[in-house]
Automatic annotation (TrEMBL):
This is Spore protein YkvP/CgeB glycosyl transferase-like domain-containing protein. It holds the Pfam family Glyco_trans_1_2. Residues 187-295 form the Spore protein YkvP/CgeB glycosyl transferase-like domain. It comes from the Bacteria. It comes from Pseudohalioglobus lutimaris. InterPro entries: YkvP/CgeB_Glyco_trans-like (IPR055259).
């Protein structure tokens, strides 16, 4: 797992550190997938990747050799090459938590060795059910993991910064890395609402209707979203078949922003009646909902946000609940 604060793995890492697990973590960013910003550093990473992946495999092998019983918890699977996959195949159990799609080439090395594959995207779940290398009994489908402990859900209800609309200085934000389809959708929504949309994520550039904030994570993201009135969630496709449900659906209310969600066949059952009132099937509907939210009184906004937070608490999972599903042992890799 990646141990950097603000990464998707943070909730799991925090849980493991606070629990009684004996574990050793292998962070792929310290091996093959280290951060690279420019062309030369990315080229160097490409050249070094195979050797660094093999180094990680050797370190994992040495760790396993010192354990009588070992289980692996693999988050996403980035950095898992053929050597790592072969080593993992010798473990007692391999739990693979996959918040992404089965698109990365490294994933093929985990398909056959995983004891359980925990999906948070229902579209991925539907896809893999028909793969010969993945049997149905391997598959677990859950909502995204937003908390380390179940007790954090109680604490969420008590936070005060959710409650005052008039202290929020930013009207509309979109949270997600850039893609051409996302840009077209956000640009169309900005045109209809006649407001600039702030976007948080990698790959965006400023334009007349878009203000690129850049990628921010963890506490910095929480502080930013506290200032935002509306968060838009759109799929990475006009047809809604790609990226239909992401962690973004849950991050908006988690950090005090009212979510306005695109509706598609995958998330219709996930969203309750209260959230469907803030869901759209086309951009005109999106613009109408955003206008309605921006004109709300503070009391109405607080009530709508409280309903989204209650939904978040009922649907989102915690690292504690995920590990409770898995059989326990004294050693976790």
């Amino acid at each position: 797992m990646r141990s950097k604060i603000g990464s998707d793995e943070t909730v799991f890492f925090k849980y493991l550190l606070a629990s009684n697990f004996v574990f050793q973590n292998f962070d792929d960013t310290t091996y093959a997938n280290f951060y690279a910003s420019g062309f030369l550093s990315k080229f160097a990473r490409h050249i070094l990747k195979r050797n660094m992946s093999n180094t990680m495999a050797l370190d994992i092998q040495n760790s396993i050799s010192r354990c009588d019983e070992s289980r692996a918890f693999v988050f996403n699977g980035r950095g898992v090459n053929k050597s790592v996959g072969r080593i993992l195949s010798n473990l007692d159990e391999v739990y693979w938590y996959l918040p992404d799609y089965l698109a990365h080439k490294e994933h093929k090395y985990l398909e056959e060795v995983a004891t359980k594959i925990i999906f948070t995207k229902p579209s991925s779940y539907n896809e893999v059910r028909f793969r010969s290398s993945i049997t149905v009994d391997k598959i677990v489908n859950i909502c995204p993991t937003m908390f380390s402990f179940e007790s954090e859900k109680i604490e969420l209800q008590k936070r005060k910064f959710y409650r005052d609309l008039h202290e929020k200085s930013i009207d509309v934000v979109f949270l997600g890395n850039h893609s051409y389809n996302k840009e077209l959708q956000i640009s169309e929504i900005a045109r209809l609402i006649r407001r600039k949309v702030y976007v948080i994520g990698s790959g965006w550039s400023d334009r007349n209707d878009i203000e690129a904030v850049g990628p921010i994570y963890g506490p910095a993201l929480a502080e930013f979203l506290k200032k935002v009135k509306v968060g838009i969630a759109v799929p990475d496709s006009f047809g809604g078949t790609i990226d239909p449900i992401t962690v973004r659906y849950f991050q908006y209310p988690l950090y005090g922003t009212l979510g306005v969600y695109s509706m598609n066949p995958y998330n219709r059952d996930l969203l309750n009646e209260k959230l469907l009132a803030y869901s759209f099937e086309n951009f005109v509907e999106a613009a109408d909902i955003i206008a309605e939210v921006l004109s709300m009184s503070g009391a109405s906004y607080s009530q709508a946000l409280a309903e989204q937070i209650a939904w978040l608490n009922s649907k989102a999972t915690s690292a504690e609940s995920v590990f409770s599903m898995l059989s326990q042992s004294e050693t976790t890799l």
